[in-house]
Every structure is written in C-alpha cells, then in structure tokens.
Amino acid sequence: MRHLTDGTLRRMVDEPLAISARDRDHYSTCLRCRSKFEEIDANARETARLLSTSSVVQVDPRLALSQLHHRIAVDRLEPVPRWQTWLADTFQRRGRRFRKPIGGAALAAVVVGAMFLTPAGSLAQNFVDVFQPKQIAPLTISTNDLSGLPDLSRFGTLSFPRKVSEQPAPSAAAAASASYMNVLTPASLPAGVPSSVTYDVLPGSSASFTFRAAKARQAAAATGKPLPRMPAGLDGSTLQVTSGTAVVAVYGNGAGDALPALVVGQMKAPTISITRVSVKVMEDYILSLPGVTARLAQAIRSIGDPTKTLPLPIPIDLAHAQTVQVQGVQGTAVGDSTGVGSVVVWEKNGIIYGVGGTQPEDQILAVANSLR
Amino acid sequence: MATAASSWMERQERDVPFERLFTAEYAKVVAIAYRVLADAHEAEDVAQEVFCSFHRRHSPDAPYAAAWLHRAAAHAALNVVRGARRRRQREETEAIAREREQSTVQASLDPQQALEEAERQREVRQALGRLSPKSAAVLALRYSGLSYAEVAEALDVGVGQIGTLLRRAEAALRKEMNDAAPH
Questions:
Q1: Least Cα separation, residue A44 to chain B (angstroms)
Q2: ipTM
Q3: Is residue B4 part of a domain?
C-alpha cells in the first residue's frame, strides 16, 4: 500500500477518528509514516505555540449586537438593494459555493430558460431542430417563480456542462485570437474606473435535458400529485442548449466582496436543439407540471417568437428592466432607480454583449455605445 | 398604517434571523480575528465590520452565512495585519497596550519574559501577513477552533484538502519565522 499523504497524517493529529481503517492499519505497521507523523505533529505543536495568545477573549454578544444596531442606525447602514447583492453574487458565481445553495433552482431555470427559446409554432417531429435567437427580451421572474420550479432531474436526465475553465488573455487582441471574435473595447471609461483590465476567454459548453417517462411517473407517485397526460414521443426527447465562446473583460477587479468597477462581456449566441418532439410540445408539458406558477407559464408563452428572441430572466423583486437603444439595436438595461449599479445587454450579428458595473444606467449605456 | 405595519413586518422578518445568527456566530468570528490580531479590541472591531457588511449584503437565512462570516473574519483580520499604514500605527499602540496587558494578565512573568512574549506576538503576526491569503486563512480558521468541516466550508474546498493546506501553511509559517529570526 502507498504511504499516507502529508495531508492525511496532518489530519490524524487533530481528528484521528476521521482516518479510514485502511489508513490506520497501514500507519500501525509503517515506520516511515510514523516517523513522518512525528515530524508533522511537532510542527503543528510549534504552530499552536506560535499562534497562542496570552489571554482568552470574553465576548458579550448582546452588548456587541446593540452596538452594531446603534452603528447601523447612526451611520444609516441600511441593507443595500437586494438586486445589487444579486448582481454581486452573479459576478462571483464561480465554483461550488454558488452551486450549492441554489443549484437545483438555477439548473431548472437554465432548462426552463431554454424553453423560452422554443419555436412556438413548430410542428417539427422526429428530427433535430437547431436554431439561434437573434435578439434579447426581458422576462420577469419572481423568487417565488424560481422556488416553485419543478426539479427536472426527477423527470428525466439532466446533463450539465463540464467544468469550464477560463483562460486568461493578456490583451483584447489575444482574447480575440483565442475566441475567434472581434473583441470590442470601450473608447472611454467613466470617471473612477481604473484602466487596468484583465481578459478571460471562456470556451462554449453544453447542457441538456432528456425527458424520461418512467422517472416522471415515479416522481408523481412519490408526491401524490397527478402527472399531466404525456404526449406521444416525449419519452426520450432531448433538449440541448450550447453556449458560445465568451470573452469577459474586468476593469478594476473587486477584491473580496467588492464588485469589479466595470465588466464588459461578449458571447457567441447559444444554439438550441431538440429531438423527437417539437419544442412547443416539451414546453407545454413542462409548463403544465405541478409547481410552475401560472404567471411564469403565461410570461414564457407570451415571449413572442422564441426562435428569434433570447429571454433575459429579470428577478422582479430585485431589479427592473427597460428597453434601450444600444449600438443601433434594441437592448435591455437592468438596474435600480437609485443608480447603485446597472447592466446593459444586447445582441448584434449573432453575438450577445453585456456591460455592467456600479455606475448609473446612463454611464453604463454610454460605455456600451462607445464599444468599438 | 398598512405601510408602517408591513415595514415593521419586513424588519422583523430580517432582524430576528439576523440576531439569531449574530448570537450563534459572534464569538467564533471574534475568535478567528483574535487569532490573527492577538488584540481583543481590534478583533471585536473586525467582527463588527464583518457582521455589518453581511447585514447589508446578505440574507441571514442564507445557507452559506456561517461560512461567509468565518472567511470574512479571517480575511478582514489579515487585511488589518497587512495594511502597512495601520500596522505601523498598531505596533505603536500595541506596544503600549500589550505592556499594560502583560503587566496584569501575566503578572507571574517577569518583565523580560513579558517583553519577549510581546515581541514574539508581533513577529508571528507579521509572518502571518506575509503568507499567501489561503495559508494564512487556514491557520486563522483552524487555530481559532473551527472543525475541519467548518474550515473547508469557509474556504470553499473539500474537507479532504484541509490537512494538506494546514501542513503547507504550518511549514510556510515556520519558514517565515526562521527567515525573520536574526542569524
């Protein structure tokens, strides 16, 4: 058997019971691991000595809480608008930390989001139907809508994108070369935005949902809720969403919880494909599942011609959206009326662009219009 | 009236869970900051900042609340140690305060021992400030008494990696201390 790693031996110092029986057996007979353990243990003791303090702090949480309340009242440190924290989270949504709390809902939203793009009038059957939206339209959703979405993994097989690793690029030209896109940069920056910029290129990725009748029946039986009648051909139908390569430029990278001063991004528009049934059939069925609010279902159905329109989900309780003219086309500006921050998104020539930051909407729009 | 009532309700809905979170986590947050700063007042100041920032930006019911607070406490305290301006200021007041503190808390130590202890504390904090953020944070979190699982949550890594991170951080701290020691 291989020797125990330093990490395992270090954990043995603090949590000996957390080590597997196999590792313990090896340790009991291995002189090398025991000797290494002695060294690691001594180093841990030395660290404990170094980091020891001369006294124990006695805290009074009630007093501390009243001090905090006092400070909040005096300095008027009211909670920042919830949409801004949502925006901050969005910028920081990398890695497991984000996926854990809202993973299910977010993934359901991705696939239901794909439903927005379904060609409502299509009668295509038994062949792969691929299309690419050509413009952006805001779709307002509420937190209630999101929490009420059905867990799609109980109705079929969800396949998620592989971990996408961003590739830093030293310049806009390098990012353009890596992404095969003409990377636009702002002609001018708002006052206070540092000109230091980092570029990341993100490869495209793909997510899919395959409907499974047997799983859906099981899910319905478990909850006791009736399953709507299943259309022919739905069993085994696969909807796939493939996002394009993206380039993200971050100006004045925010440390810790701070938002970056400005973010400019562009992505080749995603493509959608579906097999066996029309997207209209799958859309109707998923929207009829228990939990989907009537308001959301209606909003999704009223999105217009989805083969041409990419819906931009806007949480109505956190932000507002309005239509704006940007780079000669129609786009969507998302923000709050206090001007704490905003985002402008539009699509032009098969590429989706977004500019966001902590500046008011007019400044973000000016940056968007200055992209060359 | 209805607006006042709904505003009161909203406040209650937010404040009650926040107070519960504060009561449950305050001592831990202070302990993490104290492990880095070795100064009770500064540690409580950091804890106030951390909770204030959390209160403004996050829901107290967020599943990541405790992990966020622990990580923020470590980073905020390390930022204090690293801040050159603050550090100089701190060292001057620290020397006076510690002398005073040592004379009461460590009445059994002789003045020479107390002076050496104060000097050791200062060197350790400076060495912590020179470590990589992750190494310094793992030491602050673990040596303030958090379990491996809590440290893993705070640093957003698998619990199986904590032993390795700790081992590296301890070796790095030792090296920093040795390098700083007069030869």
A1: 7
A2: 0.80
A3: no
